[in-house]
Amino acid sequence: MTPLPPFPLPLPTQPPDGYGREECALSILSTTTAFEVSIRERDRFLGRMRCVICGIAGSTLLQHCHIIGQAEPRTVSFIPPETKEGPQHEPRNGLLMCNFHHAPFDKFHFFIRFVPDTQRFIFVNYSGSDELQRYHGKAIGLDNQDRHAPFPSLFVIHEIRVRGFHPFQPISSEVPDGNPFQDWIVADGVFDDISRSQRQHLSQFPHVATNSGPGVHTLELNANIINEILAATHAMPSWKACVVEGTSWDGTANENIEKYISSIGVDKSA
C-alpha cells in the first residue's frame, strides 16, 4: 500500500492526493442520515420512538423500513418527480418498525392501505397470518398531516406485490367499520380521552375506541380506489412539501409564484 503524503504547513485549501473524499459517498451518507433522522422524528410518540404497527419502543428494537427499495418504472403520479435522491433516501418512503413487523412487511405478508374517507393508514393481514391478525383492519401510528408522512400511493405498489404473493386469497378483505386505531395507540395514552385529541402527534385524528362495534366492510382494490388514493396523495402536505423541496426557485418572484401555483395546485383566486 502506497503511504499517504504528509500534510504540508500551512494547510492547503485542498487536501493532498489520497486524502480526498468522494463527493458521491458524502452525498449518500448525508441523504441516508436525513432519511433516518426524519423518520425517527416523525414516528415518535409522547417523546419515544415506536414501531408504527405495535407501538414497541426502544431504539435497539426498531428498524428503518422502506416501502419500495428503489426507483421503479412507471411511478409517475406515485412519487413526485422532484424527489432528488431517489426513493431509498426519501423519508416519505420509510417507516419505523420493529423486527417482528419489518420482516413480514418485506416478505409481503401484509400491506398498509390509506383510506381517504377516514384519512388513516390501516394494517391489512392479507396472508392470514395468526401472529398478525390482532393488528388487522386497525389504523397504525402515522400522521397524514406530517410533512414527511409516507406517500399513500407507494403503499399501493407494495399492496399489489403482497397480493401477487398470495394469489389464492380473496380479492376483498373484511375490515372493521371506521378503521379503529391499534390498541396501543389508545392503551398507552397516546390520546387524551377527555379532550378527544392526541396529546402529542396524530393531532388531526379523532379518538376512536378499538372496540367501536361489530360492523365490517370489504376493502377492495380497483381503478377507482387507486385513483382516489392518488388524488389523496397529491393533496397531502407531504407531497406538496416534497415538490417544494425538489423545485428550483431561481426565477423572479412572479416566476416562482407561477411555478408554485402550477406545481402545488394553489387556486390563483385564493
Automatic annotation (TrEMBL):
Pfam families: HNH_2 (PF13391). It comes from the Eukaryota. InterPro entries: HNH_nuc. Residues 51-112 form the HNH nuclease domain. This is HNH nuclease domain-containing protein. It comes from Lactarius akahatsu. The lineage of its organism: Eukaryota, Fungi, Dikarya, Basidiomycota, Agaricomycotina.
